[in-house]
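Re: that backbone. C-alpha cells:
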C-alpha cells in the first residue's frame, strides 16, 4: 500500500520568504532542495558538522591511513586511502 503524503511545515524568515516569491511551485522546489541537501550530507556527522567523542575516535583511527587531497582536475577535496597508493 503506498504511503500517504504528509504535510511538513517550517518557519522561514522574511528574506527566505521573499526569495521564494518568484518560484512557481514552491513545494516542489523545497522538496527538491531538501532531497539534494540530504544526498550531499556527510555520512559520518550526518550533516550536523560536529563529530561526537566516539565518532572522533573512529575518524582519528581512519585518518591514520587516509588523507584529504584536492583533485588536480576539478579541485574538489576527497579522501584518499594511503594503503592503496603502495
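Recovered sequence:
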Amino acid at each position: 500500500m503506498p504511503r500517504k503524503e504528509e504535510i511538513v511545515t517550517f518557519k522561514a524568515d522574511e528574506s527566505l520568504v521573499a526569495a521564494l516569491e518568484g518560484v512557481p511551485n514552491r513545494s516542489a522546489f523545497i522538496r527538491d532542495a531538501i532531497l539534494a541537501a540530504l544526498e550531499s550530507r556527510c555520512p559520518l556527522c550526518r550533516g550536523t558538522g560536529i563529530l561526537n567523542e566516539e565518532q572522533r575516535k573512529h575518524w582519528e583511527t581512519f585518518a591514520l591511513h587516509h588523507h584529504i587531497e584536492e583533485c588536480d582536475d576539478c579541485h574538489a577535496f576527497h579522501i584518499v586511502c594511503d594503503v592503496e597508493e603502495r
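Residues 14-85 form one domain. The longest strand covers residues 66-70.
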